[in-house]
Amino acid sequence: MPGLEDLYREIILDHYRSPRNRGTLETPPAHMAKGHNPLCGDEIQVYLIVGDGYVEDVKISGQGCSISQSSASMMSAAVKGKTVHEARRMIDAFRSMMSVHERAVAGNRIDHEEPDDYSDVKLGDLDALRGVVKFPVRIKCATLSWNTLTQALEEATA
Ligand code: ZN
């Protein structure tokens, strides 16, 4: 019987091989933000159309490792059609999933800090990236598209 790690690997590879919402959107009306992770050479462009408080459309282009590209694919599927508020909550929840461990790995005490509760946020396939926190050098690969989405959201809602 395959373990959870194998299932996670399957999900990540599936998004890497068949990325969702791949492509570009015309700017304007879309807003575009670029992200770059020099540690790994990952590049991401996020195209975003926000209207009436909703993420109406999102497209991803770029290149890089399987973690960066699959995270971007999962992110695009997760936020498309959501409200801007829901998308921001999802960004926070994903960052929290990645950074709590980053702090722990750095050897800092985190027990005085009550983490925000994101149990209401459904991350779906993104849960597959939970294992990345065991490899601190890859965390920037996983969070690249999310930081880029944050930029694009700020521009689109400015
Ligand atoms: Zn990478």
Secondary structure: elements and pairs:
Blueprint: H1 4-17, E1 31-37, E2 42-51, E3 54-63, H2 66-79, H3 84-105, H4 136-156
Zinc ion binds next to helix 2.
CATH architecture: Alpha-Beta Complex
Taken from the alpha-carbon principal axes, the silhouette is globular
Structural class: alpha+beta
Count helical runs.
Answer: 4
* C-alpha termini separation: 50 Å
Strand content: 15-25%
User: Unreliable runs, pLDDT <50, ≥5 residues?
Assistant: none
Radius of gyration: 15 Å
Q: Main β-sheet: number of strands, strand sense, barrel status? A: 3 strands, antiparallel
**Could you give the order of the helices and strands?**
HEEEHHH
Tally of individual domains: 1
CATH class: Alpha Beta
Give the averaged pLDDT, no decimals: 89
Q: What is the CATH T-level topology? A: Sufe protein. Chain: A
Oligomer: single chain
Helix content: 40-55%
Spell out which ligands are present: zinc ion
Q: Order of strands side by side in the largest beta sheet?
A: 1-2-3
List how many beta strands DSSP finds.
Answer: 3
Description:
- With 158 residues, this protein is of the alpha+beta class.
- It has a single domain, classed as Alpha-Beta Complex (Sufe protein. Chain: A).
- Helices cover 45% and strands 17% of the residues.
- It is built from four helices and three strands.
- A three-stranded antiparallel sheet has the order 1-2-3.
- Helix 1 packs across helix 2, helix 2 packs parallel to helix 4 (136-156) and helix 3 runs antiparallel to helix 4.
- It binds zinc ion.
- Zinc ion binds at residues 37, 40, 42, 64-65, 67-68, 141.
